[in-house]
């Protein structure tokens, strides 16, 4: 005979149960347990919400929470400010120091010409022999290395040997600072200097042109990449996927090196760097072309990409299109060229920039869907993804992570206050994302830590914890272009660093 | 015997089918039909995406699309600018004129002291007899009507009769303009004047205090509300739900009228207004108390609210809490008081402000969930809802609409560029929303048209169309506090106006 659930309980207990039932079921007040359940359910959905944490990780979480609360209660909340103004505050914060020390895994969205602090470019590279400078008629600069006087180029009537020039002036600091200003977007008053996206993008493209002659000088090219790896490594980033234009580089006598040279050089530099820094895991290259190309031009580039990947499968991860989306051609325009590898039966992983826009409903705004239809491996930026529920669901189903670059989006005027960054929606839903820094050198950032700060403090809210950071770091390996075997190796390496980090930073 | 699906087809057709199959299934290019299907699916999810449109409505949509594209292609895109700077551009746009003419249904989130253009307060009310002014020691003003010299009050040592004062100066325009400045948040350079939310909220509360003595003077109180209805009616809004503090009003001799007087006055003014404007449908009042109250104070207010609703069921719609959420007490703190009506077995519809914040993960950020658990009928603002997937899903399941007030959110510094307004996410998912104007008079807006412009052009993107506008208008009746019978009546009335609007504005 089945026993009554209340059988064996005393009268007093029964009365207590009835009272409890009344309180929960009959009281007009919302049930606190149900409320607690919903809150927990919501929290478990967010990035890192389902990560099982060790005792030590939980303890670290208490510290993280306290530090974050301090930041949020300050009258000047850095993520609500423009990064150029917030940077000194961030740099001084204890939480930032902690994030710097944290092993962050890989940086999956960074560009070839914006890896290295421009201080290094000015203080090291421009002081090398044979460096010429030209002040353009539109208030910018160009550099070139040459064994004899270079010829004038558009906007540039006169090249001056920097060595001679510096010898003539007493104090080189002003000159060097003017170079630095030309090589970054930094300015005291960004709101005034960059009233809209057109203006800031124009300046953004100018800085690339200013750096071009320095970075594409073959000897510098190697050193620049090596220095970049050094700076990311110092920021506790162990792996890099580099969006690279694979430009021709030049020698002092003007001879040009081709794309194969460039790609080979990347491969050699990575090998050398890893040999010297066994803690570093490596780097791969995503070959990029500009959205300004026409369809048949892109077809040729794709053919070249297929060839390069065949020859350099180790270093070459895949292909992407770069440049401002709003003024460029939409992905769908290139569909034929981009379908070429599949038609040839070869694999060409794509890592498309898509949705780096706030203009809704245009052809460009369709790029995210088209990237997915073209079988992209990740979505670069995906700033507009939250406006596209079907596309967002598809991206989740396909396991396609979004590369979130908070500081880049702010400087390029997609968002003002980081708390409004759409990644907050993605993180609240646990959508696969990774954090990256896009062009750290141009924004005055470095490595990944500043972007991790913005994401963790500004975007993810007070309830994000050790699990959030852990998931973001693990994601950067999980969603990388590495083979399953290499992912496994990288994860083991990262886990060791992580465990050490947790133990060393317990409160 | 079952027939083969291809039986009876000719050889040529079979070949064609095979070719077709190859094109669709075997081509490496994404299938354009599948793409089109996904795009349509996404579009059908957005606000208005499933509204069936008549031929005429579709034709109007073509015009709307053209006009919106013009706005988006302009170098100065109003929704990307602060409303104070955008307003002259909006006022001159053809699309705005169209939205003014459009029958917008009801305004469900507007406050009692910010209904009427402040010009009217200054040019009409302050020119009435017996109006005293005082310039406070903190650069604000106070007004009072009195039959003899009023006594000093805090911050206000000297009251001057405005009539006498004006008689002594040659040109009253400067004085009047200074009053206008004190009664609104308008300023030439809002970014500089209001560097953060604390500063703008302080000024916001100041403007209420400045208007207080004018609006709570009993004769003005009636006229003010009448004028408010007139201005909303002129903006083609046919129904109002007013968040009202139900303050004591005063007579010239200083006698005070109680809440019952105030509520009765609202009721009488509505009746009179509807009698004179049979096209107008009516107005109801949501009694509001301040989040600064403590729990037992609120309990008393709730008891009073229950009593008022029993006595004035026609005009009184329900209850809400007002004041800045971030510095006020969270809803959960008041749970006992707010559960009182249910405990008493009486109905007290709630219309809670919740989620008017960008601080994530705090107790205040939990207000939206708690509002739902307390059975709220709508959510005021819900700016933070998109950061709470579980709460968002619950709100949708419960059919609880979010009252989106774009201009208010921008002026009070929750968002800079309207394209980043979180309602864009809600609209893309077809979450139930209504558009309202919160405190139009304080922002230099009026009625609903400016907020409809921001929502339609800035938030909803290029693909939103006649269906979007139609759904927004219908929502304002569907999610109102009206009885099902009155909703039906209001919808019939609205539909007539709408059909006329569509026909009269065909391209």
Summarize the structure.
With 507 residues, the first copy, chain A, is α/β, with parallel strands linked by helices. Chain A is built from 22 helices and 13 strands. In chain A, the strands form four sheets. A four-stranded parallel beta sheet of chain A has the order 1-5-8-9. Chain A has a four-stranded parallel beta sheet with strand order 10-11-12-13. In chain A, strands 3-2-4 form a three-stranded antiparallel beta sheet.
What does this structure look like?
2 copies of one chain form a homodimer. Chain A is α/β, with parallel strands linked by helices. The first copy, chain A, folds into 2 domains: 70-117 and 218-504, Alpha-Beta Barrel (TIM Barrel), CATH 3.20.20.140; 122-193, no CATH class. In chain A, 50% of the residues lie in helices and 11% in strands. Chain A has helices at residues 11-26, 32-45, 55-73, 83-91, 94-101, 118-123, 162-168, 173-183, 190-193, 197-215, 218-234, 259-276, 295-311, 335-343, 367-373, 389-397, 406-411, 423-428, 440-443, 449-459, 466-478, 484-504, and strands at 106-111, 131-135, 141-145, 160-161, 239-244, 249-250, 256-257, 282-290, 316-322, 353-354, 378-381, 401-404, 433-435. In chain A, the strands form 4 sheets. The first copy, chain A, has a 4-stranded parallel β-sheet. A 4-stranded parallel β-sheet of chain A has the order 10-11-12-13. The first copy, chain A, has a 3-stranded antiparallel β-sheet with strand order 3-2-4. In chain A, α15 links the parallel β10 (353-354) and β11 (378-381). In chain A, α11 runs parallel beside α12 (259-276), α13 (295-311) runs parallel beside α14 and α21 (466-478) packs antiparallel against α22 (484-504). The first copy, chain A, is globular. Residues 1-8 and 21-25 of chain A have low confidence and may be disordered. Chains A and B meet through α2, α14, α15, α16 and α18 of A and α2, α14, α15, α16 and α18 of B.
């Amino acid at each position: 005979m089945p026993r009554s659930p209340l059988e064996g309980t005393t009268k007093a207990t029964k009365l207590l149960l009835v009272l409890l039932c009344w309180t929960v079921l009959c009281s007009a007040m919302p049930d606190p347990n149900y409320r607690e359940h919903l809150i927990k359910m919501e929290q478990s959905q967010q990035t890192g919400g389902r990560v099982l944490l060790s005792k030590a990780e939980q303890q670290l979480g208490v510290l993280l929470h306290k530090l974050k609360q301090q930041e949020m209660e300050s009258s000047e909340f850095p993520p609500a400010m423009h990064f150029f103004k917030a940077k000194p505050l961030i740099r001084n914060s204890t939480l930032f120091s902690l994030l710097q020390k944290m092993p962050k895994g890989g940086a999956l969205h960074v560009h070839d010409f914006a890896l290295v602090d421009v201080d290094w470019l000015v203080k090291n590279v421009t002081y090398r022999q044979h460096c010429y400078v030209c002040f353009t008629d539109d208030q910018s600069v160009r550099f070139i290395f040459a064994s004899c006087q270079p010829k004038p180029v558009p906007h540039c009537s006169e090249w001056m040997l920097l060595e001679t020039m510096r010898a003539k002036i007493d104090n080189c600091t002003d000159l060097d600072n003017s170079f630095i200003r030309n090589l970054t977007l930094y300015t005291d008053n960004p709101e005034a200097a960059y009233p809209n996206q057109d203006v800031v993008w124009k300046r953004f493209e100018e800085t690339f042109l200013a750096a071009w002659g320095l970075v594409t000088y073959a000897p510098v090219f190697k050193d620049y990449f090596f220095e970049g790896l050094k700076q990311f490594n110092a920021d506790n980033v162990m792996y890099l996927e580099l969006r690279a234009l694979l430009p021709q580089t030049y020698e002092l006598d003007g001879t040009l090196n081709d794309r194969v040279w460039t790609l080979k050089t990347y491969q050699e530099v990575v090998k050398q760097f890893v040999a010297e820094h066994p803690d570093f895991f490596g780097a791969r290259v995503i070959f990029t072309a500009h959205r300004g190309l026409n369809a048949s031009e892109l077809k040729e580039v794709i053919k070249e990409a297929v060839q390069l990947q065949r020859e350099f499968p180790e270093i070459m991860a895949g292909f992407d299109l770069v440049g401002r989306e709003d003024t460029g051609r939409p992905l769908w325009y290139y569909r034929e060229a981009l379908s070429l590898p599949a038609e040839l039966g070869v694999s060409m992983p794509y890592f498309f920039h898509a949705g780096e826009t706030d203009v809704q409903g245009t052809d460009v705004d369709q790029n995210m869907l088209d990237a997915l239809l073209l079988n992209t491996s990740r979505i670069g930026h995906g700033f507009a993804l939250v406006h596209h529920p079907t596309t967002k669901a598809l991206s989740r189903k396909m396991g396609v992570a979004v590369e979130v670059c908070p500081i880049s989006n702010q400087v390029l005027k997609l968002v003002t206050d980081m708390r409004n960054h759409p990644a907050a929606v993605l993180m609240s839903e646990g959508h696969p994302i990774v954090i990256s820094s896009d062009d750290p050198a141009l924004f005055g950032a470095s490595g990944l830590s500043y972007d991790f700060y913005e994401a963790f403090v500004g975007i993810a809210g007070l309830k994000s914890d050790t699990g959030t950071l852990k998931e973001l770091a693990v994601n950067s390996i999980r969603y990388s272009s590495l083979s399953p075997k290499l992912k496994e190796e990288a994860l083991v390496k990262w886990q060791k660093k992580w465990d050490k980090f947790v133990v060393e930073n317990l409160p």
